[in-house]
From TrEMBL:
Belongs to the universal ribosomal protein uL4 family. This is Large ribosomal subunit protein uL4. Keywords: Ribonucleoprotein, Ribosomal protein, RNA-binding, rRNA-binding. Gene3D superfamilies: 3.40.1370.10.
Length: 209
């Protein structure tokens, strides 16, 4: 499978990149994608939610009325959950939502996501990007050249480039990552995936271990 390498203005450079069928041309595994996305979203949760139960609420423990003879139900304390301002029954407690997935399954999920992008014609190969200074207008010009200014994009760099990252940070629909931090959720969330020419071989080596 071959894709043309594009210049920053959207024109073809004349070079082509061979994409591995084992990474970009597999039969997508939807269940692997589901599990990997589920883990990613679970890892974003802080798990710091907490409500006070009756033993944690501030207030008097004095019995508010006598046990019998009132015609109503027994009531031992204002901190009871049935009263306003009382504790909550079975409320949320701090917990960790993380769970483990095998590396092979996570690799399968990323390969499946990449294969979906190829099938949807949502993958572009771009010559390597480098800016002299962090300027949003430079990144916006790059997106305009590729006709992607109004789409949610994910640009994958072969290595960390601070100027490119900072240039994209103010654009709500643009995201820049490096090869080693690519995840299934962000691949699927982007309308268009843009791989730098130097990222392709690194990505294939990472997913074919």
């Amino acid at each position: 499978m071959e894709l043309a390498v594009l210049k920053h203005n959207g024109e073809e450079t004349g070079r082509k990149v061979n994409l591995s069928e084992e990474v970009f041309g597999i039969e997508p595994n939807d269940h692997a994608i589901y599990l990997d996305v589920k883990q990613y979203l679970a890892n974003q949760r802080q798990g710091t939610h907490k409500s006070k139960e009756r033993n944690e609420v501030a207030g008097s423990t004095k019995k508010i009325k006598k046990q019998k003879g009132t015609g109503g139900a027994r009531a031992g304390s204002l901190k009871s959950p049935i009263f306003r301002g009382g504790g909550r029954v079975f409320g949320p407690r701090p917990r960790n939502y993380n769970f483990k997935l095998n590396k092979s399954l996570k690799r399968l999920a990323r390969k499946s996501a990449l294969s979906y992008k190829v099938k949807e014609n949502s993958l572009m190969i771009l010559e390597n990007v480098s800016f002299d200074a962090p300027k949003t207008k430079n990144y916006l010009a790059l997106l305009n050249g590729l006709s992607l200014a109004d789409k949610k994009t994910l640009l994958v760099l072969p290595e960390v480039n601070k100027n490119v990252y900072l240039s994209s940070r103010n654009l709500p629909k643009a995201k820049v990552v490096t090869v080693d931090s690519v995840n299934t959720y962000e691949l699927l969330d982007a309308d268009s995936l843009v791989l730098c020419e130097g990222s392709v071989s690194k990505l294939e080596n990472l997913l074919l271990k």
